Each structure stands twice: as structure tokens, then as C-alpha cells.
Amino acid sequence: MSDRNFDDIAEKFSRNIYGTSKGRLRQAILWQDLDCILQGFGTRKLRILDAGGGLGQTACKLAAMGHEVLLCDLSGEMISRAQALALEQGVSGNMHFVQSAVQQVREHLDSPVDLILFHAVLEWIDEPEQVLAKLWECLAPGGVLSLMFYNANGLLMHNMVAGNFAYVAAGMPKRKKRTLSPDHPLKPENVYLWLEQIGWRITRKTGVRVFHDYLREKHQQQDCFEELLELETRFCRQEPWVSLGRYIHVTAQKPESQG
Fold this sequence. Notes:
This protein has a single domain, classed as Vaccinia Virus protein VP39 (Rossmann fold, 3-Layer(aba) Sandwich). Helix 3 links the parallel strand 1 and strand 2. About 2% of the residues have low confidence. Strands 3-2-1-4-5-7-6 form a seven-stranded mixed beta sheet, sandwiched between helices. 40% of the residues lie in helices and 19% in strands. Helix 2 packs across helix 10 and helix 5 packs parallel to helix 8. The chain is of the alpha/beta class. This is tRNA 5-carboxymethoxyuridine methyltransferase. It catalyses: 5-carboxymethoxyuridine(34) in tRNA + S-adenosyl-L-methionine = 5-methoxycarbonylmethoxyuridine(34) in tRNA + S-adenosyl-L-homocysteine. One of its GO terms (molecular function) is tRNA (5-carboxymethoxyuridine(34)-5-O)-methyltransferase activity.
């Protein structure tokens, strides 16, 4: 198995993803969807798996709401940073941490969970369809998958806007091992098909950063953030904008009638 381990670039990941307008925007749009998901469960305390949970920002916020969260990650460095954040925010009592590949996380669960978060991980995995099948086994009937993946359409659009014609013509090969550009950009139609073939019912699709990365005046990403967020929110759940997002967030439910 050669899935990406972030031990060597954990600090770069923290600085370049969450310390930027693109990270703020990603979290804002994601939480709009997560709030809807949580409302669907009512007021009960949930058992949540954050698979490939990284630095733990989302997991800690859910733990602060009173939910029980298991965060797993292949990277020991990411686990350490997530534990430190949980301690800092006073939510360690609602969290558990396991250093594990997603493929083996079922071994660490006493029973299936109500909600699985799988954000920006699928594009780093060699066999994405098989991993989605493994996550199906971790989810209780009626449970929900929150899946965010790196969109191949967005990558192509970004490079065309930048005028990288030769790079696009060459198939957009990954240039550096240590870059934060994912190993396996995913075509949305493939991801939707995998989910449906496994048995999930897709209930929502949201484009994440449908405009942000394409702005000609890059300073507007920071200077006009609130206006940008308002427009992203207005259009990000409509086509063609969903399919042009740099990421796509999919909400999918496991039917009650299937185990």
C-alpha cells in the first residue's frame, strides 16, 4: 500500500491550507453542509469517525458539540497535532485517536458509527473505490458519509486559466513528491458511480471554491472575502459551478434497510 503519509509535510499542510483564504472558504462551505447533516440527526449524541482527520479542526468542533469522535490518520505527526489541538480546546474527553490507514480503521471500532467524515483524502489513495467500500462497513444503517474530494475538472480549469496549455496537453502529471497537489485528482462522475454502486444514496453535491481560485485579481481572495463567500454560497450547489469547484463535497446516506 502506498497511500500518502503526511508526516514529512505536516507543517506545510497546516500553513498553506488552513492559514489561507482558501482554507477559510473551504471550512465555511463545508460547515454549511455539516450543519444540515447534523440537523438531520436531531439532538442525539452521535458516534463520528473522522477518517484521515489530519489536524483535527473539524473533529474538535464536533467534539465541542458533545459528539464522540474517533480521529484516525496514517500520519503520526498529524495525530500528535490533532491531540494537541483537542487538549488546547478542552475537548479531549470526547475524542479518541488512532494512527491507522483508513483501510484498517474498522478494526478500531466497537460498532458502526452514525457519521463518517472523509475530507480531502480520497485523492491521495491508490485504490479509492475499495476504500469507499471499506467505509461502508464502518457506517450504521441510516448513517451519513461526508465526502470531500479533489476535483479533476477544477484542476484542468485552473491550469487553463493560467495558460498552462502544454501541461494540460501532457495530462497534468504531478511534478514534485512533496507538493500539496494531490496524487490522484478524481473525476466527479466516477466518484458518484462508485458511491451508488456500493449502495449509498447521494443527497447533496456542493462545489468548494467554485470562484476563489479563478479570480484574476488574487488580492480579492483576502480583501473581498465576505463578498466572495456570499457568492460562493449562492452558486456552489448549482451546476455548472458544482462541477468546477476545486473540491466537491458529497453528502451520501446509507439506507436503513441495508446493513
